[in-house]
Design brief:
Layout lengths: L8 H9 L2 E6 L4 E7 H10 L5 H21 L11 E6 L10 H17 L4 E7 L3 H10 L5 H6 E3 L4
Helix pairs in contact: 1-3, 3-4
Length: 158
């Protein structure tokens, strides 16, 4: 596979667009962010670290769109900061996908989101979790802050 060292923001955004997007969520009456992780991990394999800023910029734009959607659906008397719902599809993720580069990529994204969008995500739904995610989550569950635990929902099959 080639490494796209000269990929510009527009090219990278075009490749990410169908796998990472904002939308309105009728159930929660909020903006939401949908993420299909496997294609993003595959895209990460094609890039190098010089593309990280473009990836972060794209993610920031999607978060901002999601927040704006929530803001548009907030009542006028609601003065709280808008929040969003995250839908993360883990379909196709295998343990072998968790390379050092992939872990570094995911940590970079998580740290960016935590530092930039404090208390913005009120709920995260994990769909199609691989077995190793379920096991890891069960192991670390008791070490996770109770408020954070309430925000994470692992959607089981059926």
């Amino acid at each position: 596979m080639p490494i796209y060292t000269n990929m510009n923001n527009e090219q990278l955004s075009k490749l990410m667009k169908e796998h990472f997007f904002s939308r309105y969520n009728k159930t929660h009456n909020k903006g939401s962010m949908a993420i299909y992780l496997k294609p993003l991990l595959e895209l990460n394999k094609l890039c190098n670290e010089s593309n990280n800023k473009a990836i972060i910029d794209f993610i920031s734009n999607i978060m901002t769109e999601s927040i704006e959607i929530s803001r548009q659906h907030q009542s006028e008397d609601d003065k709280t900061d808008p929040t969003i719902i995250v839908f993360l599809d883990l379909k196709g993720i295998l343990m072998r996908d968790m390379t050092t580069k992939t872990k570094k990529f995911l940590v970079m994204i998580i740290q960016f989101l935590q530092n930039t969008y404090v208390d913005t995500m009120v709920k995260t739904f994990l769909y199609n979790p691989p077995v190793f995610i379920n096991i890891t989550y069960k192991f670390f569950y008791r070490f996770i802050d109770p408020d954070t635990r309430k925000k994470i929902v692992i959607v089981k099959k059926n």
